[in-house]
Design goal:
With 356 residues, the protein is an alpha+beta fold. The chain contains eight helices and twelve strands. The N terminus and C terminus are likely disordered. It catalyses: uridine(38/39/40) in tRNA = pseudouridine(38/39/40) in tRNA.
């Protein structure tokens, strides 16, 4: 990377914009790393096995806009707090939920995995222990209580696991997706809290080249926030790429609908009115007196949409958002990639963007 910056960045505004991301945590198999094994042993010693308790692995998705993060807090609304409340209403007793990954305020999740221990006690005969609920029953019941509230959390999968299976310590990898919408027009209200709006044009090829520099095992000291408590800055970034994808929410134009030829001559599927309704979204198109744009009036110009994917077994505190901020700098030309630059030098210049 070069050290030629066009202008300094507003780190506060950039940090706020970078809050919007999606996350996937995949759970499979068991971990044998010494550090996690020790932590797991400590966890199990504090929670001795109860043969009457069934441990469930629960995958959830959520819209993080109105949450103060995933981990339970004393006063603020959190994902774990809402989920524990729903389980409490279902089984009639409090539970403790452990997530595989923590997410910050405003962060969305496509699939964050957690585990919970449930002892099924008869409500008619207090003290009588009943056989565990089937996973499908747990999913439907908990979703019922979740949807009665705000409906911004949903259980997407449930399965029974052994009592020593820990959602956090058995996690094999975690994947983050960041959406960047590039264009000078104001962002669609339908995209609110779903992406980072970058008014400038982005150079996709330069950003992809920067991604290749960071893949692999490196010292990511320049890409962790001040509050990071990790013992080592060494991390292995298994995947980092940026791809241009169709901008969403996406609804086909008149010409695209005509080309698709989906109607197949069905008179019931045709309309003589310049109005269309798709998935609950209504658009009206008509001629406007004095307009020179004709039927382009009322049509929004979509932004170019880019998705950054970062995959690793574990990340440092704010590591991914700092990397995305640096990639944006490369895309706008505030940073440039030079073929002869070493990785350490590149990291120093990334850090100069000020995303901390």
């Amino acid at each position: 990377m070069s050290d030629n910056l066009k202008h300094p960045l507003d780190s506060t505004a950039s940090e706020e914009s970078l809050e919007r991301l999606s996350k996937v945590a995949r759970i499979e198999g068991f971990s044998d790393e010494e550090e996690e094994a020790e932590e797991l042993a400590d966890s199990e010693s504090m929670n001795p096995v109860n043969p009457r308790v069934q441990r469930y692995l629960v995958a959830i998705e959520y819209i993080g806009t109105r949450f103060s993060g995933s981990q339970q807090q004393a006063k603020d609304r959190t994902v774990v707090g809402v989920l524990q409340e729903a389980f409490h209403k279902f089984i009639g007793q409090p539970v403790k939920i452990f997530c595989s990954s923590r997410t910050d305020a405003g962060v969305h999740a496509l699939s964050n995995v957690c585990h919970v221990d449930v002892e099924r006690i008869s409500k008619r005969k207090p003290g009588e222990v009943l056989p565990p609920h089937e996973p499908g029953v747990v999913q439907r019941a908990v979703n019922h209580f979740l949807q009665r509230k705000d409906g911004d959390v949903m259980v997407i999968d449930v399965r029974c696991v052994p009592s020593n299976y820990h959602a956090r310590y058995k996690a094999q990898e975690r994947t983050y997706f960041y959406r960047l919408l590039s264009g000078s027009d104001p962002l669609s209200i339908l995209e609110k809290d779903r992406c980072w709006h970058v008014p400038e044009e982005l150079n996709l090829r330069s950003m992809q080249e920067a991604c290749r520099v960071l893949v692999g095992s490196h010292d990511f000291s320049s890409f962790r926030a001040a509050g990071c408590q990790a013992k080592s800055p060494m991390r292995s970034l298994d995947e980092l790429n940026i791809t241009e994808v169709p901008s969403t929410p996406y609804f086909p134009s008149i010409s695209e609908r005509a080309r698709s030829n989906l109607n197949n001559g069905d008179p019931l599927a045709c309309s003589s009115q310049p109005k269309s309704e798709t998935a609950g979204v209504t658009t009206n198109v008509g001629e406007v007196e004095g307009s020179t744009d004709g039927d382009s009036f009322g049509r929004r110009r979509w932004h170019r949409c880019y998705v950054v994917t970062a995959r690793s077994r574990g990340f440092l505190y704010h590591q991914v958002r700092l990397i995305v901020g640096a990639l944006k700098c490369v895309g706008t030309g505030e940073l440039t990639v030079s073929d002869g630059m070493s990785l350490s030098l590149s990291l120093q210049h990334f850090y100069s963007c000020g995303f901390d």
